[in-house]
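Give me the fold.
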Amino acid sequence: MENKTKTNEIIDAAVERLFTGAIRICWDTAGAGNSVTIYHGYAPDAINRKTPVAVSDHGSIDIHGLDPGMRHCFEIVSGDNRMVVSERHLKLDGPVNFRDIGGYVTHDGRRVKWGRLFRADGLARLSDRDLALFRQIGIRRIIDFRTESEAANAPDRIPEGGDTSYIHLPVTHGKYDFAEAVKRFKQGDTDWLTADFMVEGYINNLESFARVWEAVVFHVIDEKKGPLVFHCTGGKDRTGTCAALLLLTAGIPEDVVIDDHQLSNIYIARLLPDLYRLMSDNGIDPDRVFPYLTAPRDCIEAVISHISYKYGSAWGYFLSKTSLTETHLAQLKNVMLE
């Protein structure tokens, strides 16, 4: 019996939406050629387990005919083993870096719940179709890390109906906020934009805005208020710092946290040609401001090194810099993990 369970173990799985509209599901089981049964739903906790959408032993399958305007979740079953998996990146009309931080595995084998915590870039560009998807995935709280001027220049679009709370927790990334930085770019002032500036901005996020991250933890712990999304303008620096702190506190390995941060570069890439063109038209050298438009790997590595060197761990950071206790952090971990 032990060997059977071990052989049927689902090691990992992933979901990707193809350009054709089909959903590709890939999985890895401990035993070669194991058949799995796949069930479908529109939320991680609303899987229809009566009728499977597929049975396969190939390790990958494309599911056709699903509503392209909805987010899809799946449960993969192999023997007595089950795993819920969903799309990480939500392909929206407006925001390009909107994603679920679910599915990551901790050092001790637990997984971050799908459909509870999302990270994103600016939400001012949400289309009507995006808002419909926003409602479908059940987001009830928006945490905005942008400064007052950023939020005023591009207010978030919030679903009508009054059941979505907007929480503004401003964080200034570095010496200038985004609006001021763009103004300086247009004036030809780019000398301040160095590799050190970017790294220092990330460290400043930690050292100067601990109360913001503390507030985020309290909001996450209050899970009865529903799923939440936290965001800034690009969804990479301030949002990346927040995601790293949450994932590290939950016990996600450092290399996985770094990989999550680097996903921003994949999704932001589609905007870069237009941004480069816009900057060139305004007399700005795109190569000079490239680090400001991407998610530099050395920045998130610096954050993790700083936390480890100065505080020992993300838990140590929160215990030292905020009013959070070990009980709060244990709650956070239990709320985030399956």
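Residues 106 and 251 are 5 Å apart (CA to CA).
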